[in-house]
Design brief:
The complex is a heterodimer of chains A (205) and B (125).
Chain A (H helix, E strand, L loop, with lengths): L12 E9 L5 H8 L5 E10 L12 E16 L2 E7 L7 H8 L4 E6 L8 H10 L3 E6 L9 H8 L7 E4 L4 H17 L18
Chain B lengths: L2 H9 E2 L3 E2 L3 H4 L15 E4 L10 H9 L4 E2 H8 L3 H13 L3 E4 L10 H12 L3
Antiparallel strand pairs in B: 1-2, 3-4, 3-5
Helix pairs in contact in B: 3-5, 4-5
Classes of the chains: A alpha/beta (205), B alpha+beta (125).
């Protein structure tokens, strides 16, 4: 008991990386491949004004939505544990991303080149918040292989944003994506110093 | 098997999940008395509160034997994070659980943390 009295060193640093992307793009697969534990799921109950979703005639009804968050864990060393959180892909959960992205080191945006527009929301969100991210193209079997520069052009990504190919099912491949992200975080200027003008929602589409 | 675990089985179903509406657990409360994030740490202090704990408080306390995060407790209890925070903050209030922010000592964008993270991830390749 006395060991817990005042010191905060009874637990390591919990670091957070977000895994974002459209529905079915492989976020949970990616987390499963990299996590040291089977992915866990928690739910957030959210009360929100449902403007622009299912409302009729502009009536903003209060609705309660359950959003499932899958997450995994990687113990780095005695002092740090990395948590990977799958961020819901739908635009209307942006408000949740706000809480999720608080304190996050950076993000992986998973992309299926057959459905590129599915990741616009995530890219827009991270750009507008100055959150550093990379794009990982999940190479599904049988999918047409776009080269990284085609993806960069289609998504309108700045040259500084890394684009990597990956197989989200493969531990080594998915872990390499995380290594690339951390290298990017070490190389890129901190968002606080970057001049990232907020991107208008809908610019990209 | 204890009578307690039998009680749990009554109210949990593998396929359907929880058979009690989540906010029943927190008696309708949605705001924890102690501010917590998904990755806030929690640990049992070893102090056993006087009186009988509600079943969910008892389970939550059992999950805090070693330091863990709010998100992990929520997942293992199959409770929404908001409800789990209320239960855990009740335990904090009676001194049974200690909580701490995710990274109190350091800025998470600190270079030394990122460098150690890089090394740790590379070792997994």
């Amino acid at each position: 008991m006395s060991a817990f009295n005042s010191d905060s060193d009874w637990a390591p640093n919990a670091l957070k990386v977000l895994i974002a992307g459209g529905f079915g793009v492989g976020k949970t697969t990616f987390i499963t491949a990299t996590s040291e534990i089977p992915p866990l799921r928690t739910e957030e109950l959210l009360t929100t004004a449902s403007v622009g979703t299912d409302d009729l005639a502009g009536i903003a009804a209060k609705t309660t939505t359950t959003v499932a968050l899958d997450f995994g864990r990687i113990t780095i060393d005695r002092d740090s544990v990395l948590y990977l959180f799958g961020a819901p892909g739908q635009d209307r959960f942006w408000f949740l991303w706000d809480e999720l992205s608080h304190g996050a080191l950076g993000a992986v945006v998973l992309v299926d080149t057959r459905r590129l527009p599915d990741c616009f929301a995530a890219v827009d969100f991270f750009e507008s918040r100055g959150m550093r991210f990379l794009v990982a193209v999940n190479e599904f079997d049988g999918a047409y292989r776009h080269n990284p520069e085609e993806v960069r052009e289609a998504l309108g990504l700045l040259p500084a944003v890394p684009i990597v190919m990956c197989d989200a099912r493969d531990r080594r491949s998915a872990t390499t994506v995380l290594v690339t992200l951390v290298r990017h975080l070490l190389a890129a200027p901190s968002p606080a110093h970057a001049s990232s003008a907020p991107t208008e929602v809908g610019d990209r589409a | 098997m204890t009578s307690h675990s039998m009680h749990r089985e009554t109210w949990l179903d593998e396929a359907a999940g929880r058979l009690v509406r989540p906010y029943t657990v927190s008696a309708g409360r949605t705001r924890p008395t102690t501010a917590m994030e998904l990755l806030s740490w929690v640990v049992a202090t070893g102090v056993r509160p006087r009186g009988r704990l509600e079943p969910d408080h008892d389970v939550a306390l059992g999950l805090c034997g070693a330091a863990t995060t709010v998100a992990e407790v929520a997942a293992r209890m199959r409770l929404p994070a908001a409800v789990t925070k209320v239960v855990l903050s009740d335990l904090v209030a009676v001194g049974a659980v200690l909580t701490r922010p995710p990274s109190p000592a350091a800025d998470p964008t600190d270079r030394s943390i990122l460098e150690r993270l890089l090394v740790g991830l590379q070792q997994r390749l």
